Input
Amino acid sequence: MAPNHRLRLRLRLAVGLLHLLLLPAASRARDTIAPGQPLRGNDTLVSSGTGSFALGFFSPPGSNNTYVGVWYAKLPVRTVVWVANRADPVRGAAGATLSVSSTGCALAVADANGTVVWSASPPADAAEGTCEARIQDDGNLVVSDQRGRVAWQGFDHPTDTLLPGMRLGVDFAAGKNMTLTAWASPSDPSPSPVVAAMDTSGDPEVFIWNGPTKVWRSGPWDGVQFTGVPDTVTYKSLGFSFRFVNDGREATYSFHVRDASIVSRLALNSTGAGGGLLQRWTWLDAARAWNLYWYAPKDQCDAVSPCGPNGVCDPNAVPPCSCLRGFVPRSPATWALRDGRDGCVRTTPLDCANRTDGFAVLPQAKVPDTTQAVVDFNASLEQCRQRCLRNCSCTAYASANLTGEPGRRGCVTWTGGLGDLRVYPGFGQDLYFRLAAADLAVPEELILHGLRRCQPHRRASLG
Output
């Protein structure tokens, strides 16, 4: 071979090798687990395409336990957003595997001895033939069969984090309840008692629970946002969009980010470190750090019913608790000590039989707990008022949808005490609550005339 030809060959080989070395890591990395090709302790899957997410084995800081998790592949700070075996760790990383079975499409995490510590199997009729598991660019770990049908996916089993496209709520048709459960501690991803879940009774809304205790309520979806999350007016300008589905087949919430350069997640923690239990974080490239964008609970009025039934919490007032018009404290002694949890009672009994009752308005309100409320999207606000007047058990009503979409306006009605009421400065909506005629400052016709001229406040969507 001539010297010049050998030189040209070496140059081509060198250029080819350099090209391979300069390829993005995501384009060279494996993104799939197939039967007989498990993911081992030192291996990592990276999503193809943008290479945004990685899946592999990790140990939290301060822990010797090993877990299978998903994290952001491109960020300098490892942030785990999903954990497979969070309650079933592998003791030590050596020999650990994540595999997909050749039949049945089951995922399994095993230790060095081959003992399965965690597994996930799709329904018997969900897959056909050989399956593979792939980490996708949205962070979803998907098991699909040979026809490409999804047999099982991590997004149906969230841990503590809601990513864009993930759903929080209940899929009645599929029999799935998708909740967030905080880590026990930063070094222990096992489930803590702190849970964020959609309560689908009445008008659906999200609650944060700490064991058996409700600690925060989102308020119902009003067609624009959750009524208890009024301070997210800048979200749309950042390219966020929000989706709430309540159609009988599912009651779910999800968010999306149109701008791919914005990295955002909604996470639940068990300590409230940094502010709140439910936190929205966005990544700041310039600071190379996560920025806390929103959190809840945020103030004393975000606690569930700090002022009791028929009490109103205003964080800008001193004291923050007051009674609705026509009501007085049930326990004046405890109220004087600024403990309003006993709430308020009527000064004048209602007179439904003689149809003398009327309605006053509480503006800029987070509407009461809707667990026992009734929603009718086919009724106008005036029809709702008439219906409430005829029903002696009805104590309040409000608009169910503030978008004005045809056929979707509707209303919500309450019976009994009105719990977990609060007001916002410049936000919220009108709540019409029932009073005896003696407690109405002016004749009902004038009040109603004035109320019809009030327009609900509009604002953007969930944190």
Q: What stands out?
A: The longest strand covers residues 188-199. Residues 3-22 form the longest helix (20 residues). The chain is about 10% helix and 35% strand.
